[in-house]
Please model this.
Amino acid sequence: MRRLTRLSRILAVGLRFGLHEFIPPLAQSRVLGWFCSDRAEPGAVRLRRALETLGPIFVKFGQVLSTRRDLLPSDIADELAKLQDQVPAFDPAEAVAEIERSLGRRIDEVFARFEQQPMASASIAQVHLATLSSGAEVAVKVLRPGVERAISRDVLLLETAAGLMERLWVEGRRLKPREVVAEFSRHLEEELDLLREAANASQLRRNFEHSPLLAVPQVHWDFCARRVMVMERMHGTPVSQVAELRAQGVDIPALARTGVEIFFTQVFRDGFFHADMHPGNILVEVGREAGAATRGRYVALDFGIMGTLTETDKNYLAQNFVAFFNRDYRRVAQAHLDAGWVPADTRLDQFETAIRAVCEPIFARPLKEIYFGKLLLRLFQTSRRFNVEVQPQLVMLQKTLLNIEGLGRQLDPELDLWTTAKPYLERWMDERIGWRGLVQTIRREAPTWAQTLPALPRLAHRMLAENRSGELRAILERLARENARRNNLLAALLAILLASLAVQLLTLL
Model:
């Protein structure tokens, strides 16, 4: 019943703001137009207000759309961009009450100064600037009142929609909508715990410590709780203000390339990446070194949604990217087959041909000439033809890649994404597969070996004692005899080699 009520609410909000105008078959309906209460407002404004009214999940959807200016008219993209940090704020008195309740201290006992007017307000929380008693400038993030209940309600609705999709749509099972919703829900749950966000920020800061590419604020752990987070205040220009950055002398094309490098560094080096990198969460810190030109360094904000990848995922993705950049479509097809993403009886040559037909037209083109709407449609058609299964654990990575590509397009439409990323990925693969990778693997596994090797005799003795049939004992004894013969042979070969070397030395003398 709750889900039906929420669905009715969504439909009512859509009618009130005239969202039927964005659906071509319904756009000219006079009957539906009667329900619109604000026809004087532009459609883009009504869309933004409707998403704000519907709550956090819909706001996040609008944030993702706002980064895709290649898919949206400019007026809609500009209006949706306001959802990144200009969502209507909640009462500052409620923020103060939450801080005092969470920290168990009065506001003036924690902060020497606290600004009542929020600096930014988004779908999950809002941020106030403050100064600690120590004099440190900080940003205080506070969750919205009742946000957990609102998100829980919409997640239930998404779960219902996903279940219906699987039952009623022939493509439903292949796309795994329930698993995708579960993955999305898990990330939202983490975003509602600011202690987890603080831990994410600390990890990302440690990964990029002393990095000239990315700055991450320091967390003040003494003033953090589940619904309150206090971190270092960061200064910079919003990355979306390209004209202002250019006026400050920032090399915009270089900044765009740096963004691509940061993304691939997080994904392939660390397997831990910022999964909500829309422009509202990114500043550019501008500084000038002695005798050097003005440069820009990215500043990351909002660490509620982070993605992680296993070593298997990282290796699979790296192989696919490198093969893709080298236009080795057969290798891309084989990687999908090896990973089990397509049925085992898939014709490799046909799959390779289909991938080539989708990917070949986009090479050697700047972002401004790539129409991602058509590309996504063709990718979907190809995946449906070959029954490619959606991988829920990679949904956040796909979302982030769309954000990064959208940001790159906004900064530098001439950016060649493929040429920029290829050298970095090839270098990373060389380090993984070459001798450096071997040394790193040995270092990583050495502690495990050190603990396991001394225990092997005891474990073997226990297995022998528990083996009633004696079959395992016989196998181990046979292996021991073969190993002894092998050792004797090696010893004989070593003796012959040493003798030969001795004869040669004597001859030389």
